[in-house]
Write a structure and sequence with these properties.
This protein is mostly helical and 129 residues long. The protein folds into two domains: 1-79, no CATH class; 82-129. The protein is built from five helices and two strands; from the N terminus they run H-E-E-H-H-H-H. Strands 1-2 form a two-stranded antiparallel ribbon. The radius of gyration is 22 Å and the shape is extended. The chain crosses the membrane at residues 27-49, 61-80, 86-112. Belongs to the amino acid-polyamine-organocation (APC) superfamily. Spore germination protein (SGP) (TC 2.A.3.9) family. Keywords: Germination, Membrane, Transmembrane, Transmembrane helix, Transport.
Length: 129
Protein backbone atom coordinates (compact mmCIF):
# COMPACT_ATOMS: atom_id res chain seq x y z
CA UNK A 1 0.00 0.00 0.00
CA UNK A 2 2.82 2.43 0.76
CA UNK A 3 4.30 1.95 -2.71
CA UNK A 4 1.47 3.98 -4.22
CA UNK A 5 2.05 6.99 -1.94
CA UNK A 6 4.75 9.56 -2.57
CA UNK A 7 5.30 10.33 1.14
CA UNK A 8 4.16 7.38 3.30
CA UNK A 9 5.19 9.20 6.49
CA UNK A 10 2.52 11.81 5.84
CA UNK A 11 -0.12 9.10 5.42
CA UNK A 12 0.94 7.56 8.74
CA UNK A 13 0.86 10.98 10.43
CA UNK A 14 -2.84 11.31 9.60
CA UNK A 15 -3.63 8.42 11.93
CA UNK A 16 -1.51 9.58 14.88
CA UNK A 17 -3.35 11.15 17.79
CA UNK A 18 -2.29 11.93 21.33
CA UNK A 19 -4.92 11.68 24.09
CA UNK A 20 -7.77 12.38 21.64
CA UNK A 21 -7.07 16.12 21.54
CA UNK A 22 -3.89 16.38 19.45
CA UNK A 23 -4.66 15.06 16.00
CA UNK A 24 -3.57 15.71 12.43
CA UNK A 25 0.08 16.41 13.18
CA UNK A 26 1.04 16.58 9.50
CA UNK A 27 1.92 20.26 9.84
CA UNK A 28 4.30 19.51 12.71
CA UNK A 29 6.02 16.78 10.71
CA UNK A 30 6.37 19.06 7.68
CA UNK A 31 7.79 21.85 9.88
CA UNK A 32 10.38 19.49 11.39
CA UNK A 33 11.22 18.13 7.93
CA UNK A 34 11.72 21.61 6.42
CA UNK A 35 13.79 22.75 9.42
CA UNK A 36 16.04 19.72 9.01
CA UNK A 37 16.48 20.39 5.29
CA UNK A 38 17.29 24.03 6.04
CA UNK A 39 19.96 23.08 8.58
CA UNK A 40 21.48 20.50 6.23
CA UNK A 41 21.64 22.86 3.25
CA UNK A 42 23.03 25.66 5.44
CA UNK A 43 25.81 23.46 6.80
CA UNK A 44 26.73 22.18 3.33
CA UNK A 45 26.77 25.73 1.91
CA UNK A 46 28.93 26.92 4.82
CA UNK A 47 31.40 24.08 4.28
CA UNK A 48 31.50 24.81 0.54
CA UNK A 49 32.17 28.51 1.11
CA UNK A 50 34.87 27.90 3.73
CA UNK A 51 36.56 25.26 1.57
CA UNK A 52 36.55 27.42 -1.56
CA UNK A 53 37.82 30.43 0.38
CA UNK A 54 40.71 28.38 1.77
CA UNK A 55 41.45 26.91 -1.65
CA UNK A 56 41.56 30.40 -3.22
CA UNK A 57 43.53 31.82 -0.24
CA UNK A 58 40.82 34.36 0.58
CA UNK A 59 40.51 35.89 4.02
CA UNK A 60 36.70 36.10 3.98
CA UNK A 61 34.28 33.45 2.76
CA UNK A 62 31.16 35.63 2.77
CA UNK A 63 31.47 36.98 -0.81
CA UNK A 64 31.36 33.37 -2.03
CA UNK A 65 28.10 32.38 -0.33
CA UNK A 66 25.59 33.81 -2.85
CA UNK A 67 27.42 32.61 -5.98
CA UNK A 68 27.78 29.14 -4.46
CA UNK A 69 24.11 29.11 -3.45
CA UNK A 70 23.13 30.03 -7.01
CA UNK A 71 25.37 27.30 -8.45
CA UNK A 72 23.92 24.77 -6.01
CA UNK A 73 20.40 25.75 -7.06
CA UNK A 74 21.21 25.41 -10.76
CA UNK A 75 22.98 22.11 -10.17
CA UNK A 76 20.05 20.72 -8.18
CA UNK A 77 17.72 21.22 -11.15
CA UNK A 78 20.32 20.01 -13.63
CA UNK A 79 20.96 16.66 -11.95
CA UNK A 80 17.37 15.57 -11.29
CA UNK A 81 14.38 17.44 -12.67
CA UNK A 82 11.42 15.33 -11.47
CA UNK A 83 10.39 12.45 -9.21
CA UNK A 84 10.53 9.80 -11.91
CA UNK A 85 14.22 10.58 -12.46
CA UNK A 86 14.83 10.24 -8.72
CA UNK A 87 13.12 6.84 -8.74
CA UNK A 88 15.17 5.76 -11.75
CA UNK A 89 18.42 6.94 -10.16
CA UNK A 90 17.73 5.24 -6.84
CA UNK A 91 16.59 2.07 -8.58
CA UNK A 92 19.59 1.75 -10.87
CA UNK A 93 22.70 3.42 -9.51
CA UNK A 94 21.56 5.09 -6.31
CA UNK A 95 23.43 2.63 -4.10
CA UNK A 96 26.73 3.24 -5.90
CA UNK A 97 26.18 6.99 -5.76
CA UNK A 98 25.37 6.84 -2.05
CA UNK A 99 28.36 4.60 -1.38
CA UNK A 100 30.67 7.05 -3.14
CA UNK A 101 29.28 10.19 -1.52
CA UNK A 102 28.93 8.81 2.01
CA UNK A 103 31.95 6.49 2.29
CA UNK A 104 34.55 6.87 -0.47
CA UNK A 105 34.67 10.67 -0.69
CA UNK A 106 34.90 11.29 3.09
CA UNK A 107 37.46 8.48 3.34
CA UNK A 108 39.64 10.10 0.70
CA UNK A 109 39.35 13.46 2.44
CA UNK A 110 40.32 11.87 5.75
CA UNK A 111 43.32 10.13 4.14
CA UNK A 112 44.51 13.36 2.53
CA UNK A 113 44.11 15.23 5.83
CA UNK A 114 46.10 12.61 7.73
CA UNK A 115 48.86 12.61 5.11
CA UNK A 116 49.05 16.41 5.14
CA UNK A 117 49.09 16.56 8.94
CA UNK A 118 51.80 13.91 9.06
CA UNK A 119 54.01 15.95 6.75
CA UNK A 120 53.43 19.13 8.73
CA UNK A 121 54.34 17.48 12.04
CA UNK A 122 57.49 15.90 10.59
CA UNK A 123 58.60 19.20 9.09
CA UNK A 124 58.10 21.04 12.38
CA UNK A 125 59.90 18.27 14.26
CA UNK A 126 62.88 18.26 11.88
CA UNK A 127 63.13 22.05 11.88
CA UNK A 128 63.45 22.20 15.66
CA UNK A 129 66.23 19.59 15.93
Amino acid sequence: MTDSFVFPVMIAARYISFADFLQHIEALIVAIWIAGIFVKVSVFLYVQAISLAQWLNLNDFRPLVFPLAFLDLVYSFWVISNQSEIATLLGSSGNLYTLFVLIVLPGLLLAVARIRNGRVHRTVGNGQS
